[in-house]
Amino acid sequence: MEPTRQSNVLFVVLDTVRKDRLGPYGYERETTPELSRFAQEATVFESAVAPAPWTLPVHASLFTGRYPSQHGADQGSPYLENATTLASVLSTAGYDTACYSSNAWITPYTGLTDGFDHHDSFFEVLPRDVLSGPLASAWQTVNDNEYLRDLASTIVHLGAKAHAKLASGEGADSKTPSVIDRTKSFIDDSGSDEGWFAFVNLMDAHLPYYPPEEYREEFAPGVDPDDVCQNSKEYNSGARAIDDDEWEAIRGLYDAEIAHMDAELGRLFEWLRETGQWDETTVVVCADHGELHGEHDLYGHEFALYDQLINVPLLVKHPDLEADRRDDLVELLDCYHTVLEALDVDPESAVTAAADGDSVARDPTRSLLSSEYRAFDGAAAPDPGQQAVLEGDGDVDYGFVEYAQPVIELHHLEEKASEAGIELPDDHRAYARLRAARSTDAKYVRADRIPDEGYRLDADPDEESAIEPSDDETVAATERALANFEDAVGGAWDDPTETDRDEADALAEADEETQERLRELGYLE
Question: What are the residue boundaries of the Sulfatase N-terminal domain, all occurrences included (predicted)?
Answer without folding.
Answer: 7-345
